[in-house]
Design goal:
The protein has 821 residues and is α/β, with parallel strands linked by helices. Helices cover 23% and strands 28% of the residues. The protein contains 18 helices and 40 strands. α1 packs antiparallel against α10, α2 packs across α8 and α10 runs antiparallel to α11.
Length: 821
Amino acid sequence: MSAGFPCLAQVAPSPSPAAILQELREFRTFGTVLLVAAHPDDEDRPLLAFLSKSCDFRTGYLSINRGDGGQNEIGPEFDAKLGVIRTQELLAGRRIDGAQQFFTRAIDFGYSKSMDETLRIWDHQAVLGDVVRVIRTFRPDVVVTRFAPVAQPGNHGHHNASALLAVEAFKLAGDPKAYPEQIAEGLAPWQPTRIVQDGGNGLSISGSNTDPVTGETVQAIAARTSAQHKTQGLGNFSGGGRGGGRGGGGGNGDFRAGFTLLNGAPGTNLMDGVDLTWSRVAGGADIGKAADEIIPQFDTNNPSASVEALLKLRANLTALADSPLVEEKRKLLDKILQACLGLSVATTVPQAEVVAGEPLKLKFAVNVASGRMGLWQGIRFPATGREITLSGLLYGPPGPYTETSETNETLPASLPLSEPYWLREEPTVGMFRVDDPKLIGQPESPPAFPVEYIFRVGDQTLVVTDEPIQAGTESGKFEARRTLKIISPVSLKFGSGVALFTPGSKKTVEVEITAARSDVSGTLHLETPADWKISPASQPFKIANAGDKMKLAFTVTAPAQAASGSFLAVADIGRQKFSNGRYEIHYDHIPVQLLQSAARLKVIAVDYAIRGKAVGYLPGAGDDTAEDITQLGYTVTTLTGADLTTNRLKDFDAVVIGVRAFNERTDLATNFPALLAWVEQGGTVIAQYNRPNGLRTQQLGPYPLSIQGQAPPLRVTDENAPVTFLLPDQPALNVPNKITAADFVGWVQERGAYFASQWDERYAAPLAMSDPGEKQPNSSLLIAKHGNGYYVYTSLAFFRQLPAGVPGAYRLFANLVSLGK
C-alpha cells in the first residue's frame, strides 16, 4: 500500500458540473422510450438525441440485427466480423447521444424483399422472444418503430419485420404466460403505455433543440453519431441522419417530432398518460421532492457542497422496494455522488492479454478531486469472490489527492476466452446461439475480470466498478484503450479459409500455430467428417518463445464422391484443448476488437477443371476472392492500376477486378483503356459488381453498360431463385466445366446485386434469374468478345459464394477465368 505517491494510472476525469446537474435532472425525471428498427444505421438519430438530452428520458435503441450481411466501405471484414464493427459503431454513437443500445440474436442475411422471408429465416418466435426480453428488461413507457409493421413494396423486408416484431412484442411483454422462461429467470412482465410509428401527425413531442450541457443542437449531435457509421460510408457525414432537419431546420428553435399510433393508449403528446415523476414509485414522492430541492441549490462551482444532501437522498432511496427502475435510479444516483466527490478510479495491468489460470498483477489508483474525507475499505473481485480489505484507508485530505495500491491475483482457470458472446457458438442461418439468456439483448460481452472498489462515505457504502486496462493505454483515446482479455496459450490458423479438392484427390493442408506464451508444447489434430482421411492423425509441437510461429502439414484425402464439410484444428496442451483462431480489428473510431472464433477450414470435393495458370487480381473494397482463386489452382498476383499495361499483363491468362473497385480505386479509370487494349490482344477480364452511387467512372466495360437504377429491382435476394440458361451453348457455361442447375444449389445470402440496367447488344447475357413475382433484367452475367479477348461484367455475388465454399460458384468462376483458353 502506498499513499500520496504519483498516480499509477491516468484515472478518468470527473464529469463537468453542468453534466452532473443534467444527471440530477435525469434522476428526477421518469419516462422511458425504446426505438426499434432493423439495422445499425436505421436509428432516428435526432430523435434519440432529443429524447435523451433535451427531455431527460431513459432512451434506448433496439437494432434487431448487427448489420452482419452488409457491405464494408473501409476494410476487408464481412459477415460476423462486420457485425462486430457495426456493434461498436452503434456504441460509439450512443456515447454521443446518451441512449442505451440493445440487439436481438437475429443475423443480417442481406437485403430481403419479403417480410415473410425475413421472419422465416430469423425464426419468428425466437427473435420475437428477444424483443419481448428487451422490453421487459428496459421497461419502456413508449415504444417507437422506425418503419411500418406491414409489408411495403420496394422496402427492405428487415425494416417492416422489425416493426411487426415490435408490435407483437408490445402485446406480449405484459403477459406472464408469454415466454414464461423469462419470468422464471426473474424478469417481470411489463406493458408499455403505447407503441407508435416514427412520423405522422397523430401524436407529437416538442422541446428545446439544444443539449443543455454543451449547447449543441440535436442535429449536430445526430451528425456526430451518423459519422460513426464509417463502414456504411458515413464517416464524413454532416447532416442530421434519418429524421434530420427537424427542429427549426437544425437551428436553435424547438425540436418537434410526429408519430402515428399503432396500439395502446391514445393521446396527443407522445408521453400522454405516462407519469414522469417519482410519484409512480410506491413511496417515491419524497424522493422526487428531495431531488427538486437539490437541483436549484446545486453549486456548479462546488459540486461537493451537494454531497450531504445526496447522501440523505441515497439513504431514503435505499429504503424503497426493489424494482428494475428503482435499481437503475440507484445506480444513477451513485454515479452523481461519485462525480460530486470528484472520485475516480483506474485499474491497470502490465499486459491486456492473460491466459486463464495465470497470475495477474493489478495496480489500483483512486483520485479524489473534491478534498472530501472518506474511507477506501477494499477491493472486490466478483469473478473469484475474493475481497481485499484495506482497513479503512483514509483518503481525501484538502486538495486533489491520489491513493494507490496493488496486488497479485490468480485468474480462475475456468474463465472463458474473450469473444463476443454471440459468436461463441455456431449459428443457424438466421440466428446466433447464446447459451446464457441473461446476455441476450446486450450490446457486448461483460468485462472479463471486473473489479469493485469499496468506499465508505459518511455512514454509507459506495461501490465503484471498473475493469483492468493495459498500463500506458488508459490515458489515450478511448479507441486505443486495451481492456483485459482472456486468451489461449496458442492460436491456430489454417492456410486458407477454403480448401478445394477433386473427389479422391490428395492435398496438403497447413495449420499455423502461434504461441502467446513461451515454452508451450502439445499435440495438434484435425477434427473432420468421417469420410475425409487425414495423415498423420496428430502431430506434436513445441514453441520456445512467445510470438513465434510454426506450421504443421497434414495430408488430406478427399472422399471418392462429391462432398463438403469443415475441419476444426485442435491443440491439446496438458489437459486442456484449444481450437481458437485469432483476429484483431483495428480502426481509429472503435476500440480494438479481439476475435477468437473456432479455427475452421471449409472443405469441398467437387469435379472441376481450369485452363490457364496465372491470374492478376486488382483489389476492390476488400474481399477474399484472390485467395479463393488460388484454391482453384491458379497463381495469383496482386496488381495496382499502374500495372494495367499490355506489357505488364502479357504473362497473365486473366485479370480479376475486385468488388466495388470502380467505386473505391482512384487508379482504375485512368488505366482502364490500357486494360481494354490488353483484352483486345487476347486477355480476359472479370469485373465484379459495383454500386451505382459513387462511381469514379461511367465506363465499366469496352461497350456501353449502365448499373444506374434503384437497387431492389436490380438484385436477386433469394439465394435459391431458379436460374434459366438463356444461351446454353455459351462457352462460359460449358468450358472447361459443364454448368447445370446443380451448380446454383447451396448459394448463400443472395444471387447477386446491382445488375446492369442497360447494356450494349455486344454483351451476351447467358443467365436469367428473378426473385419470386418479379422480373429482373438478364444481366447478372454479361460477356463481351472484345478483339481477341473477353470482357466479363458480373453482378453475381462471387465474393460471398467463394469464401462460403459453394462448389458451383467455383466451377462457374473457373469457366470465366478460362474464357478463350
